[in-house]
Amino acid sequence: MHRLLLTITLLLTTALAAAQDVRKVVVGFPPGGTLDVLGRAVAQAAAEEPGAGTWVVDNQPGAGSLLAAQNVSRALPDGRTLLLAPVVVPAFMPHLYKKMSFDPLADLVPVAELGAFNFALVVGANVPVKSLADWVAYSKANPGKTSFGSFGAGTPSHFVGVMFNRAAGTDSLHVPYKGGAPAMQALLSGEIQAAYLLTGGMTTEQAKAGKVRVLAVTGATRSRSLPDVPTFGESGLGLKEMEAASLWYGWFAPKGTPAAEVERLNRLLVQAAKAPKVQDVLTREEIVPQAAGAAAFAQKVQRDHRQWGEVIRSTGFTLDQ
Question: Of 119, 231, 271, 281, which residue is most buried, by most CB within 10 angstroms?
C-alpha cells in the first residue's frame, strides 16, 4: 500500500509539474492566418530552447483580437499566458471604443516586438498617375472625386489612408471592404481609384502582372518583392506622419507579470524569432523582424498609442454599438 501511494504521489507530482510548465500563446484570429502561423512557428522554436517547457497556441478569434486581449489581461500574471497581437490592440482600440471592460494599454505588459508589417498605396492601372507626387496632384485636382479602399472601417488600412490624407492635404473618400481581397477586386474593377494593401502577396502579384501600380510603401525600408517602389519617406513630399507610420505584431503579458519574467520572456522570444522556420514565415509575409528589449518596445507602444490616437480622433470614428 505504501508503495502504491508513493507511486500515485510521484505521478501526481509529475503531472502537476508538467501542467505548470505549459505556456499558452493566445492569438485573436482563426487558425491559418498570418498571426496564427507566426505564433505557431515562434512557439515551436521557443519550446526547443532549454528549460522553456511546452508551448501551445490557443486561437480566440473575435473583434480583431479584442476578445483575446481581454482574456489575457485577466489571466494570472505568472508569465505562462502570452498574447500575440497587432498594433491595433494597444494603439487603436482604446480610441475606437469609448466603453471597454479593460484597458489594453494599462492591463497588458509589452514583452517583445515580433516584427513590422507595411502597407502599400496601390492605384488601378487606369488611374493616370505614375508616382506618389502624381497621385497627390491628381487628388487635389479632383477634389471629392477620388477614393481609397481598406480592409474595413477601424482597421489599420483605414487609418493609414486617413493619415495620408492628413499629411498630403488630400480628401480621398474612404470605402471599407471586408478584407484585402475584396478591396483589391474593387481596385481592379475601377470601383475605387486607390487602396492601402499589405505589401507582398496579391499586391506584388497584381503589380507584376501590370494590373495595378504601387506608388509607395510604409516603413523605413523598401518592400522585398517590389524593390523599385520607394518608401513614403523617399518621396520627398515631406509626409512626416506617413514616414513615421508604425505597424507591428508584438507579444504581451498580463499586468502584474514580474519584470524579471518579462525580461526572460523577451530574451526567449527574440531568440526564437531567429529560428530558420520563423525567419521563413517572416520573409514570406514581408514582416521585418525586430529584436529590441522589453523597455524599448513599451516606449514604442506608448508612442504609437499617442500617434494613432490623434489620427483616429480626427475622424470622430468609433466602433461602439
Answer: 119
pLDDT one-digit tens code per residue, 41-72: 999 999 999 888 999 999 999 998 999 999 99
Domain edge (last residue) among 243, 264, 285: 243
CA atoms 55, 59, 62, 63: torsion sign: positive
Cell 482604446, residue located:
94
Instruction: Give the residue numbers spanning the domain of 70.
Output: 24-116+247-315
**Mean pLDDT computed over 235-257:** 95
Same domain, 152 and 239: yes
- Asked whether residue 68 falls in the same domain as residue 128, the answer is no
What's the domain count of the chain? 2
Confidence of residue 252 (pLDDT cuts 50, 70, 90): very high
Task: Specify whether 299 is located in the same domain as 221.
Answer: no
Indicate if the pLDDT at residue 10 is higher than 70.
Answer: no
The model carries a pTM of 0.90
Residues 180 and 268 in one domain: no
Residue 31 backbone phi and psi in degrees, to 5: -60, 145
Beta bridge partners of 119: 198
